[in-house]
Design a protein that fits this description.
Blueprint (H helix, E strand, L loop, with lengths): L19 E7 L2 E6 L5 E3 L3 E3 L11 E5 L2 E6 L3 H6 L10 H11 L6 E5 L5 H10 L4 E6 L2 H13 L6 E5 L2 H4 L6 E6 L8 H7 E11 L2 H13 L3 E6 L6 E2 L6 E2 L9 E6 L3
Parallel strand pairs: 7-8, 7-10, 8-9, 10-11
Antiparallel strand pairs: 1-2, 1-6, 3-4, 5-6, 11-15, 12-15, 13-14
The protein binds S-adenosylmethionine.
S-adenosylmethionine binds next to helix 3, strand 8 and helix 5.
């Protein structure tokens, strides 16, 4: 800490009332909960008084009813690991590269369709930070309700707006956005409204599981005069690390989807 600054960059910010924390009992057993000053009912544990950890550093221990929990500030992986799934979600490798293709960073205003289970919405809300905004469209009220639940559980409700809308029929709305990300069956039909709702220089990224969808999507980007169009597929291979026996895992997720990024220019 310097004399000029009152912020100590060597210490994490203390745990605040209202923020979402991870109560970690052991590897594979943890709970995502809002940090409340009063006793909180937590499914799987019972009623827990989290009040004593408010103002303490993340990582502090909380003994409770014969068990003990480490109280952590959740990582993005923790948030996605506690998701309640309805629709098929985008995998982390694809979600992180979609951020790159769409140029999403702190403070950005991003449109997303469809919301699905809200996995990508959480990744977007995490990336744009407290000064950014995500507007997420889905045509199904039940998926929207689940995605809203997941985003609130992750602590991002104040940076995400969910709207019920068939964007293939009615298009995106509410621009100008800095970026748009499309993960729905016919992204090509949304590309014209993405052009209308993304600012000049902003980017659009799409996720398409099949080559046929990819071709139609790129054709739509070209006919809407998008530039810097680039499509990729990412293959992730986990490694089994053993002393003297380190090798790739035998099992691999062979296919997820193809990612395309494009830039809206005049
Ligand atoms: C594969 S899921 C999206 C998953 C999401 N990216 C995630 O990571 O959780 C596709 C979503 O698109 C929505 N969808 C399909 N067609 C749509 C349309 N025309 N307008 C709006 N949403 C649509 C579906 O209801 C579904 O929730």
């Amino acid at each position: 800490m310097t004399e000029e600054s009152s912020v100590d960059f060597r210490r994490p910010a203390p745990l605040r009332e209202g923020e979402v924390v991870l109560l970690r009992q052991r590897e594979g057993l943890s709970y995502l909960v809002p940090l409340a000053a009063k006793p909180t009912a937590i499914e799987g544990i019972g009623v827990v008084d989290l009040g004593p950890v408010i103002g303490r550093d993340p990582g502090t221990m909380l003994p409770w009813a014969g068990a003990s929990f480490r109280v952590l500030r959740p990582s993005l992986a923790d948030l996605l690991g506690h998701l309640r799934r309805r629709a098929q979600i985008v995998t982390p490798k694809d979600a992180m590269y979609l951020l790159y293709l769409a140029g999403v960073g702190p403070g950005a205003r991003v449109a997303e369709a469809g919301s699905g289970s809200g996995a990508l919405t959480i990744v977007l809300a995490h990336a744009v930070g407290p000064d950014g905004r995500v507007v997420s469209f889905d045509r199904r009220a039940d998926f929207l309700a689940n995605a809203r639940h997941n985003v609130a559980a992750a602590g991002f409700a104040d940076r995400v707006e969910f709207l019920e809308r068939d964007v293939q029929a009615s298009g995106l709305d509410g621009g100008p956005f800095d970026a748009a990300i499309l993960d729905l069956p016919e992204p090509w039909s949304v590309v014209p409204s993405a052009r209308a709702n993304v600012r000049a220089g902003g980017r659009v990224a799409t996720y398409t599981p099949t080559y046929n969808q990819l071709e139609r999507t790129v054709r739509a980007f070209r006919s809407e005069r998008f530039e810097e169009i680039r499509s990729v597929e990412l293959l992730e291979r986990a490694l089994h690390v053993g002393e003297g026996g380190t090798r790739p895992d035998f099992d691999m997720l062979g296919h997820t989807g193809f990612l395309t990024g494009a830039r809206r220019m005049e």
